[in-house]
Design goal:
Blueprint (H helix, E strand, L loop, with lengths): L9 E7 L6 H8 L7 E7 L5 H6 L4 E5 L5 H11 L4 E4 L4 E2 L3 H12 L5 E3 L1 E2 L5 H8 L9 E4 H6 L11 H11 L4 E2 L2 E2 L3 E2 L2 H5 L1 H24 L4
Parallel strand pairs: 1-2, 1-4, 2-3, 6-9, 7-10
Antiparallel strand pairs: 4-8, 5-11, 6-8
Length: about 220
């Protein structure tokens, strides 16, 4: 899966759920990324102006009236994408730069890696330790891969929502595929508690953690990987 020197077209997919306050900052940078040929925003059951704001950037916007989860939105994005290389980015990033996008894409464009997982810079360099200690915990949303790799992933309840990055990690490990882990310095994400208030934000965070934990448990037992 890593031998793809002729691949040139890159599709950047941004799943978004009620990100009207944040998506402009992400799209303004994404539009400047020289390696990105196509940008697709999946406006997933948005009740705010996420879709209309995204359309002002002249990118492709797919509106879904009912959400089935982050992973489901990502699957829909890949189905619509024309690129042979797929990159995902969260819609609520802070301090995103074109350099970050290049860092994530470069290992895949080179043909040397099947997946690239961007690690947000952590306190005391903890982000760099994740792939060395336990790469299965690298669940960052900024990642790139070949479309063939994504299409080969098992699509079940583990990959329909927040467990999808975990599915990718386990699948790559199971098949001994090369994964790069670039450190994305000064890249941050608007925390859920800030976006939705403490109660709702914390509840959503717990949901994410439960789904990731469940996906890890299930992936360890999956024979189809």
């Amino acid at each position: 899966m890593t031998n793809h020197p002729k691949i040139q077209k890159v599709s950047l997919i941004i799943p978004a759920h009620n990100e009207a306050e944040n998506i402009s900052a992400v799209l303004s940078v994404a539009k400047k990324a020289k390696d990105v040929n196509e940008i697709i925003v999946i406006a997933d059951a948005c009740i705010d102006h996420t879709a209309s704001i995204a359309k002002t950037f002249k990118v492709r916007v797919i509106e879904r009236p009912k959400t089935q989860g982050k992973g489901s939105a990502m699957i829909a994005g890949v189905s619509a994408a024309s690129g042979d290389i797929i990159m995902f980015a969260d819609a609520d990033l802070e301090n995103l730069t074109t350099k970050h996008i290049t860092q994530v894409l470069k290992p895949i464009i080179s043909g040397k890696y099947t997946m690239s997982v961007g690690l947000r810079d952590r306190v005391f360099g903890l982000g760099a330790l994740i792939p060395k200690i336990y790469p299965m915990y690298a669940i960052g949303g900024e990642r790139a891969m070949t479309k063939d790799f994504f299409n080969s992933l098992p699509k079940d309840k583990n990959s329909l929502d927040f467990g999808i990055e975990t599915v990718m990690n386990y699948y790559a490990k199971k098949h001994n595929l090369k994964v790069s882990y670039p450190i994305l310095k000064n890249l941050h994400q608007v925390i859920k508690e800030k976006k939705y208030g403490f109660t709702q934000g914390f509840s959503d965070r717990l949901k994410l953690m439960r789904q990731v934990k469940r996906a890890r448990k299930n992936m360890k037992n999956k024979t189809y990987l």
